[in-house]
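U., I forgot to send this yesterday:
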Amino acid sequence: MKNNRESLYVRYLRFFYGIEGPLDEYREEAINKLAGKLFLVIWNYFTLSTTAVWIALLVTYFTSKAAQLIVLWWFGANALAIMTIGTYISLKIHKLKIDRIDVSNQMEYHAALKKMKRAVLIQGIFLLLATRISQIIYEFLSYGNDKSIVELILSPVNNLIFLGVTALVTIGNYITKRRKIDREYHE
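Result:
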């Protein structure tokens, strides 16, 4: 008997665009149109920003302080561009209503809710690990030999701050995703 599992590419598309249900023709067409437009925006932005950074680096003769500042601003601008594009994708997907989960009875609702809770918890754990590890690496490189990695990892203040922020983001993510469940039954 043939396995009817989705390909890794389809699962990635559903994850990236926040689609919980099946990837039907309407959803796939909407994603393709959105992806085509965004590709052009991203291509042009990164081509222009990379060219501008190289010109700025050549003008400053790669002096260490000026080069560091240029690259830092470039990373910041790219992060802002990625967040803006991510927000646009999220709003467009919500407007097209292709992120909805349709349930027709109480059992389906609770199953969808359970699956969503698990996914949000895993995303929250990955967010905590990624942000905390990035911050530890940044602090270690910034402070040099002033602090050991163990001190940075065990820092109670930083751990509590990152845990609190991650908890708030995860709760917000849960509330947002919970609203995507369309109940077609009456309780």
